[in-house]
Amino acid sequence: MATTGVQFVDNVILSFNRISNEKKETFLKLLILSITAILSFSTRLFAVLRFESVIHEFDPYFNFRTTRFLTEEGFYNFHNWFDDRAWYPLGRIIGGTIYPGLMLTSAVLYGVMHVINVTIDIRNVCVFLAPLFSSLTTIVTYHLAKELKGPGAGLVAASMIAIVPGYISRSVAGSYDNEGIAIFCMLLTYYMWVKSVKTGSIFWSTLCALAYFYMVSSWGGYVFLINLIPMHVLALMLTGRFSHRVYIAYSTVYCLGTILSMQIPFVGFQPVQSSEHMAVCMFVRLCSVKSVSTY
Predict the structure, then answer these.
(1) Cβ distance 127 to 53 under 8 Å?
(2) What are the C-alpha distances in Å from 50 to residues 30, 44, 64, 122?
(3) Could you tell me if 191 and 151 are in contact, meaning their C-beta atoms sit under 8 angstroms apart?
(4) What is the C-alpha separation between 185 and 181, in angstroms, rounded?
(5) What string of H, E and C letters represents the secondary structure of the chain?
(6) Cβ proximity of 66 and 94 under 8 Å
């Protein structure tokens, strides 16, 4: 048996040596990225392994209640639900006071799994949602860093975000809060933005706006995201790297992203009224002036 095992390993090594260097490199990248994603998921399961599959803390339990109501009653009733148990004795209108992205994501995953006959309780979907999205975050981080520097930087960045303590504390199993998916949404938006700037494509800009919409629906921290993009455009202007590709990307992301973000009832008209969004609006005009002057 030992000889057979050694022969098997030798055959695997010989087969690996026969393939081209390019395929070897691709295989190693996939292997490292897969291990990173598994590590990211497994390091967030200690609460479940040590105790059991439960929702902990106050906000995550409220999010779980609303998600359970969404899966049982449907989106229309969820959107118009008056919860008399929250903010007692005043009560709370759920549709107009929350970011629904977290609940909708869990409800969609729950529905998809039941369609393919994977019976799972909505509680377990909520418990393991954040670790699942942490694995997806490592993949998005790899692609983002790869666009900025290269594959090596992408693998290092993915490995680091998989084990960074600050992110683990907000995405541990059972911590069913907005940050569990919001970090993924933020990095996905940045990745789409970089692709939009590099290509000047309306297609990538539209995907960036959709990713931004997902971010807005998930977490109030979208304000940091939409203010960092204008700062990037300003840096490109100051360094003489502004081009029509940047103008197309920024204009598309701003127009579509603002219209989509205003569809979230809790956000409403803030993108065109509040001071937090004024930099975005100002830079659209600045980009237009810059593009006309350099046409």
Answers:
(1) yes
(2) 31, 11, 21, 21
(3) no
(4) 6
(5) CHHHHHHHHHHHHHHHHHCCHHHHHHHHHHHHHHHHHHHHHHCCCHHHHHCCCCCCCHHHHHHHHHHHHHHHHCHHHHHCCEECCCCCCCCEECCCCCCCHHHHHHHHHHHHHHHCCCCCCHHHHHHHHHHHHHHHHHHHHHHHHHHHCCHHHHHHHHHHHHHCHHHHHHCCCCCCCCHHHHHHHHHHHHHHHHHHHHHCCHHHHHHHHHHHHHHHCCCCCHHHHHHHHHHHHHHHHHCCCCCHHHHHHHHHHHHHHHHHHCCCCCCCCHHHHCHHHHHHHHHHHHHHHHHHHCC
(6) yes
Question: What is the gyration radius of the CA atoms in the chain, in angstroms?
Answer: 23
Terminal-to-terminal C-alpha distance of the chain: 74
Contact call for residues 250 and 200 (beta carbons, < 8 A) = no
Closest CA relative to residue 225, chosen from 186, 181, 179, 170: 186
At 122, list the tokens: 């909505």
Cα(208)–Cα(232) distance, rounded to whole angstroms? Answer: 15
Q: What pLDDT shows up at residue 10? A: 61
What are the tokens at 264? 């979230």
Question: How many whole angstroms separate alpha carbon 274 and alpha carbon 270?
Answer: 5
Backbone phi, then psi, for 93, in 5-degree steps?
A: -85, 110
For residue range 143-200, what is the model confidence (pLDDT) as tens digits?
999 999 989 999 999 999 999 998 998 899 988 999 889 999 999 999 999 999 999 8
